[in-house]
Structures are given as C-alpha cells and as structure tokens.
Amino acid sequence: MQNPFASLGHVCAVIGAQWGDEGKGKVIDLLAERFDIVARACGGANAGHTIVVKGKKHVFHLLPSGALHSNTTVVIGSGLVLHLPTLLEEIRTLKDAGIDVLPRLFISEEAHILFDFHKDIDAALEEQRKVREGKGIGTTKRGIGPAYMDKAARSGTRMESLRGALTPVLARHAERVQRLYGVTVDQAKELKNLEEARALLAERITDTVGMLHERLQKDKKILIEGAQASLLDLDHGTYPYVTSSATTLAGALQGLGLPPQALTSCIGVAKAYCTRVGEGEFASEVTGQAGDRLRERGGEYGSTTGRPRRCGWLSIPDLRRSAMINGFTHWNITKLDVLDEEAEIPVCMGIASDGKAEWKKLPGWKTSTVGITAFAKLPKEAQEYLQFIEQETGVPAWLIGTGPGREQMIVR
Ligand code: IMP
After folding, report:
1. Residue 26: phi, psi to the nearest 5?
2. Residue 150 catalytic?
3. Same domain, 339 and 375
C-alpha cells in the first residue's frame, strides 16, 4: 500500500475549519513523530488541548501538543502572546512526567509577553461590554485581546526584553495601564514572573525564523500546529465574536516567518457536526434534545474554561469558505461516531436572508462506527456522508476520527 502520509510533503499545516475544538490535537499526535519540528504560530493560552501523559490527563495551553514526542523540536513562533507562568507550569508538568522539553524548545524573541494585567484588562473590557451592550464577546479571559492590542499599538513587550532590565518595563506598563484602563498592575508579582521565566528560558529565546529556514535548507520537516480556527479569525471570522489573532493558514505562516511556497499541504480539521463556545452567530446551532445529545456524546465542554459548548450540525457554506481561504489539501473529519445514533442528519446548505439555516437531511446510519479503521468498513450512509462533504467542498476526506483513542481513525 502507498504511504498515506507521503502526500503531506515537508511542510504541513493543521488548521481548524470551524470555531475551534475540532480535535486538532489528535491529528498532531499522529503526525508529530513523522516530522522533525512542531511549531505553534499564533494565539496564546486561550487554546487548550487535553493530553494524557502516563494515564494522567493534562490540559496544555501554550506548548504545542506535538511537544510530547521526545524527538521533536518544538518552536513557539513570533505570532504568539505568551503568559510566562503558564508556559513554565507546562514545562514543569511535562518534566514531572519524565519528558524534558526544554533542551528542544525554541521560543521566538519576537513573541510578545502576555502579562497578568492583560487578563485583568480582558475581564474589565468584557464587563464594560456587558454593561454597555448587554453582552460580552465571551472571551476565555486569558488576556488575549489586550495583549494583541498592545502589540498593534506598539506598546508591547517582546521575549527579547527578558535579556534587559525589567523594572523600567513594568513601571512603564503600570503607568499606561492605570491611565488607560484604571487597572492597577501588581509590579512585584509581574517582576517575579519575569525573573522566573528568565532563569529558566533565557537560553531558549532565539531567532526562530532564521532557525526554521536553516532547517528547511537541510530538508527537515515542519508541522505547523494551528490554534483556534478559521471562523474565529480576526479578519475572516464572525467579527466581532472572534479572537484577536490571524488563525488561518496565512496567519500561521506570518506567525512563523515562513513564505507561502514553503508549504506543501494544509489539513483542514472539522468535526462531523459543529460546536462553538462564546457568543456570536451560529446558524446551524441546535438547542433542545438534539443539541444535548451532541454535547453529551461528544463531551462538548471547553478544555480551557469548562463552559458547555453550543452544538449544531455541519455547515457546508462555512466549510467551503474555510477551505477556500486556507487552500485545504486534505480534510480531517473528526468525531464521526458522535453521529452514530442519529436517524437523520441535517446539514446546513445556506443561510436565508432572515439568518436562518437552509437544511438538507442526509440519512443516518444508526449503528456504531467506534474504532473503525477502514473506510470500506463504514456503514454505507456514513461513507455517503463523508463523500457528500468531499463533493461540496472539493477537498478529500483523508483522515476520519471514529473515537477518542489514538488508533480510532481511518487514514486514506
Ligand atoms: P479570546 O481568544 O479569549 O479573546 O476569545 C474570543 C473568542 O474566541 C471567544 O468566543 C472564545 O470562546 C473563542 N476562543 C478562543 N480560543 C479558542 C479555542 O482554542 N477554542 C475555541 N474557542 C476559542
């Protein structure tokens, strides 16, 4: 049989096609050992992926999930906003589990530091939106928006600053943040965080752009681990209910300083249905029993915030748009088995002028697909469901998730 991974080539990006939580961690887990480098490009600790290390569950927010593979070089790119105590905790957690990521970790000197005060501003801005506009954005309260605001305003602090004097940096932020937002900065606590990070990470802060290009020259393989997802993109998502970074492939390349022609494949990850956390439009959302069924069968509770996720059916226009913007070459359709008990599966085919979804109903398969590893072994209706997605989006369903376990997937 032909190697199903050959089509990915040397530089592969994994990008969420919906509103996040599509299950990118599992495909990364499968692919990481086939690549030399796993790189995260954008976002911050708003991302969350659950990783089981030695039978114990850990939720990681900053380190890419590929960090677990002991031979992989791990890159944290320029586009990230880093909450340093969170990063240190994740490094320690892995170390306690016998995985020493530090010697193979490379952090961009251009990445921005996300301070505790950014979280306080995030909470204050959400509160103001609730009072003034009746509802907030439903952020993860991890300080993401305010950290990127500082970056865009050219008031941010980059990782390279850990090489210099820290007290004046904090004094400058304290004055500015008090004046602009009425938020008081705990300078002593922030200083302690920075000093602890400097002690552990100083050697690991580097020019990751130069390093990645050097490795490319040597034919090394890079796996780009996207964070959040296309419909949360600051430009192309459901603004203003989006995150504050560029979550698409273009944003990932920008966040790592890689040119488009370096890329050889882009895997779009989409659930066989759809979920969303936080506020914002979601035409294919279902409430009531069907929504509850998807939530319970899919375990749809946020890994960063624990919030119950809003659930709904697949939206073809959204998948098409994500495929178009990112240029997906492969689909990873996850959690197919969550639909196993549905007699009929509605799919959103368009949105009417009143904002309501226009549905097409596809037949369900009413039988378990859990653990199936060959496409031909899937019930006929499940095969047709996947073929329908392929026809409507023009992207092949290359990888299909049939359960939470590592082996529970179909690779075509
Ligand atoms: P922020 O990124 O914390 O500012 O949140 C903005 C919006 O993006 C909110 O609706 C969040 O729920 C959503 N969001 C941010 N990161 C993720 C993620 O990794 N998965 C799912 N939703 C996310």
Report:
1. -70, -45
2. no
3. yes
Nearest CA, atom 9, ligand 1: 139
**Span of 254-258, 302-306, 405-409 with lowest mean pLDDT:** 302-306
Last residue of a domain, one of 142, 170, 204: 204
Note whether 174 and 63 are same-domain residues: no
**Cα(146)–Cα(140) distance, integer angstroms:** 12
pLDDT in tens, 272-325: 999 999 889 999 999 999 999 999 999 999 877 788 999 999 999 999 999 999
Position of tokens 């296309």?
Answer: 230
**Cα 412–chain centre separation:** 24
- Ligand 1 center–CA 47 separation, angstroms: 7
Q: What is the CATH number of the domain that holds 230?
A: 3.40.440.10
pTM of the predicted model as reported, rounded to 2 decimal places: 0.96
CA diameter of the chain: 66
Q: Which domain does 161 fall in, by range? A: 112-204
21 included as an active-site residue: yes
Q: 106: which 2 tokens?
A: 């490379």
